[in-house]
Amino acid sequence: MLNVRVVQVVCALSTASFGAASVALAQDAHAHHTAHAHGAAAITDKARAQIDSARAAFSVYNTPAKAIAAGFIPVLGDIPLQGVHYVNREVVEAAQFDITKPSMLLFSQLGDSTALVGAAYGYRVPESDPDPAGFDGDADAWHEHPILARGGQRVTMVHLWLNDPPDGPFAHDNATLPFAARSMSTPDAAWLAGSDLRDLALALSLADATGERLVRMSRAGGEALRASLKADRDGINAIATQLSAAQNAGDRAQYLALANKAVAHSNNLISTLKNSAPNPAMREAVGRVIDEFIGNHSPPMTSTP
Questions:
Q1: What single-letter DSSP state applies at residue 17?
Q2: Do residues 33 and 148 lie in contact, with contact meaning Cβ atoms separated by under 8 Å?
Q3: How far apart are CA 125 and CA 82, in angstroms?
Q4: CA-wise closest residue to 197 among 256, 126, 283
Q5: Domains in the chain: boundaries
Q6: Closest CA to 83 of 97, 67, 99
Q7: Distances (CA, A) of 218 to 45, 54, 129, 184, 205
């Protein structure tokens, strides 16, 4: 079964201190109550200028050492499709939106190096307060992390990526990161896009170093559980090499077939972990923690050759 103590600790951390050690746990786009349901809105000229100013401001902290020297502290490790969140607690608690002063910096492994990939503006605000004014227009998709909120408050956040991912500069996730981590090319949007691209990216992430924490949570589950998780992760890693070969050959049908196999491994891994808890109450708690860590994965891919 899943390590019950680990789940209890993670759950406690997630509700205890947003500014200290819990800020980076959440990633479930489906569980977040998006107050501004406008992620697909067009980016205004003013917003684009603001994005350029923000990126120029936070790109000076382009190494973890520079981020730490500026008061940003890494919390809770590598989050799939987002990277490691380095949090400035003072900015979080001040809850004053400033384009040039994000409360978090996002670092991710890109090939053999760790790179700054984005920033986040995240604050704890009274439950009845609106989201910060944010960037001009309606394209900045603020989202909530209920598992991180204290009583009478909510945690609201928006990401800004250093380079635009497929879903735009304010996307909740950056599906290009797991490909870059493996020095793979992100597939063209004509091949794979939207939730299908995200599902494949998540699979690659869970089979890479990012997924190690989920596997460590299962260390009390016995050899059978560990063997099952290893088989799924090994399967994804084997498929990753074949994906590159199919992409280089221009074989979209083969690429999609392989991608579906990788996602099936990922879904099985997630299901195995969720069902490994010893009782219904723990399975519910485990499910919330895992969904916050990885985001709710989608049904099988809809893309066809």
A1: -
A2: no
A3: 23
A4: 256
A5: 4-178, 194-294
A6: 67
A7: 48, 40, 39, 29, 18
Are the beta carbons of 118 and 69 closer than 8 angstroms?
no
pLDDT (tens digit per residue) in 179-228: 999 999 999 999 999 999 999 999 999 999 877 776 776 665 678 888 89
What is the rounded CA–CA span in Å between residue 76 and residue 84?
7
Q: Give dist(CA 25, CA 75) in Å, integer.
A: 9
Q: How many separate helices (H) and strands (E) can be counted in the chain?
A: 10, 6
| Tens digits of residue pLDDT in 244-271 | 999 999 999 999 999 999 999 999 999 9
The two structure tokens encoding residue 123:
């604050």
Amino acid at position 186, single letter: T
Q: State the number of CA atoms in the 13 A half-sphere of 265 facing the CB.
A: 26
Q: CB of 69 within 8 A of CB of 109? A: no
Angle between helices 4-16 and 280-294 (to 10 degrees): 60
